[in-house]
Amino acid sequence: MRIAVIGSGYVGLVSAVCFSEIGHEVISVDNDSAKIAALERGEVPIHERFLPELLQRHLGGRLRFSSSIAQAVQESDAVFITVGTPQSETGEADLSFVEAVAYEIASAIHSPKLVIEKSTVPVSTCESLRKTLLLNGAPSGLFSVASNPEFLREGTAVTDFLYPDRIVVGADDQFSVALLQAIYQPLTSGDYYTQSHAIPHPGQFHGKAPLILTTAKSAELIKHASNAFLAMKISFINAVANISEAVGADIQQVCAGIGSDSRIGPKFLNAGIGYGGSCFPKDVRAFHAVAAQCGYDFGLLGEVTRINDEQRRRFVKRVRSALWTLRGKRLGVLGLAFKDGTDDIRESPAIGIIEALLKEGAHVRVYDPAAVPNAKKALSSDRLSYADDSYDAADACDALLILTEWKEFASLDLPRLKRLLKYPIVIDGRNLYEPSRMASAGIIYHSIGRATGVPDHLSEIVQPTEMELPVTARDFASGAASAS
Ligand code: UDX
Q1: 16 ligand 1 Cβ < 6 A
Q2: Closest protein CA for atom 20 of ligand 1
Q3: How far apart are CA 25 and CA 75, in angstroms?
Q4: 399-402 and 425-428 as β-strands: parallel, antiparallel, unpaired?
Q5: Cα separation of 320 and 420, whole Å?
Q6: Closest to 147 in 3D by CA, of 214, 195, 234, 198
């Protein structure tokens, strides 16, 4: 199959490379000519496992890059739209990039094409896309539109594409259904997985990728509802963690108990400083706005966002209560990315928290294995410095804060850490350690939804089951640690 992928950002590039990997002829398009030139040289602009080797494998073969939408559309049977759908000021998705791309696609349709929306968009976007294509000169008998949402997580996007939990095809006519089934056939038949060069699946896989056929509108709803549900799961468990903390229970034990109910499941039940990234915060707000436009008050989604924002403020308050005052304090910070395995800092809770700490007069020395170059563009303060590794970040600090769940932060040499810190205090927003283990290493350990770990000789100054004070009106009013 000949495929055009319009937009070579995160979703577009991963999709283009993976479509080539499963045997299709692909043209990946972007209007940023510098990006296209870099990709043509084999340079990958994002931090994503397997992407460099797959780009290398198919570049100059089944995979080409171009700046021309018209050329890519003319040379393809299927055209995927993967441009950004950022949040507008009102919280709705801004679809102006999709619309701009549609104008150009319309004038290049001279033979049968399927135009597929892959970016996350509000329900009914396919309908608007079809109208826009018609109004801009696409002959009505020569094209169809369909929805095929992506479910790619940053850091595992390539394996998420090749080994999906499900492929959702939202199509309202037989031509679209047949074309999309043919595109995904190497995955749905399992043929791809038998090839010797196939990218290995990290865990267990059942041999064939399931494909779910729906209408276009249902597919659009599936995407928004899935992301909103996952975000809700995180906010729910964070709210339970706050209760757990107040009564001296242990959220990890609570999660093990909740998660072993097969109707709930153990995934996405890690309490922490909340979700971030380019999808969840934006998609929850956009879905809320979609509901409002339909005349439905989906208040639950407002709560999901509110709890998520509050989680950051509570963490800053926790730092304040552990150190008394923050002005002039030196804080080591581990983590900038919104989660592990990525250099992405968009809506990262870590960034919001660091900004709040700097605002309160603290000195911050931060380390992240991948996200420092991006953070340098986003954060600026003469009280902020960058460390070479975790121990360098901790050196001579009043406390060490853990803000991203990078695996390497979960296996620190604790005796060395204790020697380096001025005060033996670790405040962990990702629950990477057992409180008792930290306490045995002589470190006062604060985490989320669990009692503080306190070394015996310091029990006089910290009560392990000390109740956290509720977040005060002042915390809300100041807006400290709100999303960056
Ligand atoms: C998400 C969706 O998972 C993906 O299907 C969609 O297409 C794009 O958005 P991604 O943004 O890459 O993917 O991140 P994900 O791995 O889902 O994590 C989102 C955020 O939630 C991170 O900030 C992470 O730290 C946080 N999180 C996740 C928790 O706080 N607790 C958890 O239990 C899980």
Answers
A1: no
A2: 275
A3: 10
A4: parallel
A5: 21
A6: 214
Q: What is the pLDDT of residue 458?
A: 86
CA distances from 104 to 80, 131, 144 (A): 13, 14, 16
Spatial neighbors of 173 by CB under 8 A, at least 6 apart, are 144
Listed residue (157, 59, 122, 453) closest to 283, CA to CA: 122
- CA torsion angle 463 467 469 471 (round to 10): 120
What letter would DSSP give residue 154?
T
Kind of pairing between the strands at 399-402 and 211-214: unpaired
Please, what are the domains in the chain?
2-214 (3.40.50.720), 221-484 (3.40.50.720)
**Tokens for 297?**
């008050």
Tell me the C-alpha distance between 10 and 70, whole Å.
22
What are the C-alpha distances in Å from 298 to residues 24, 90, 289, 293, 478?
A: 41, 16, 9, 11, 27
Among residues 348, 314, 320, which one has the least CA distance to residue 238?
Answer: 314
Q: Is 153 in the pocket of ligand 1 (CB under 6 A)?
A: yes
**pLDDT (tens digit per residue) in 317-348:** 999 999 989 999 999 999 999 999 889 999 99
Instruction: Enter the pTM of the model.
Output: 0.92
Q: How many Cα neighbours within 13 Å face the side chain of 75?
A: 18
| Average pLDDT of the segment spanning 100-127 | 95
- Is a pLDDT exceeding 80 seen at residue 87? yes
Mutate to test the pocket of ligand 1, among 153, 305, 343, 406 (most ligand atoms within 8 A of CB): 153
User: Phi first, then psi: what are they for 328, rounded to 5°?
Assistant: 80, -10
Q: Round the average pLDDT of the chain to a whole number and report it.
A: 94
* Residue 38, pLDDT above cutoff 80: yes
Taking CA atoms only, the protein residue closest to ligand 1 atom 10 is: 153
For β-strands 167-171 and 143-147, DSSP reports them as antiparallel
CA 189 from centroid of its chain's CA atoms: 29
| pLDDT tops 90 at residue 480 | no
Residue 227 has pLDDT above 80, yes or no: yes
Q: In what order do the strands lie in the sheet with 425-428?
A: 384-386, 363-367, 330-334, 399-402, 425-428, 444-446
Residue 232 Cβ contacting ligand 1 at under 6 Å: no
Find the length of the chain: 484
Catalytic residue annotation? 279
The pLDDT tens digits of the residues spanning 163-201 come to 999 999 999 999 999 999 999 999 999 999 999 999 998
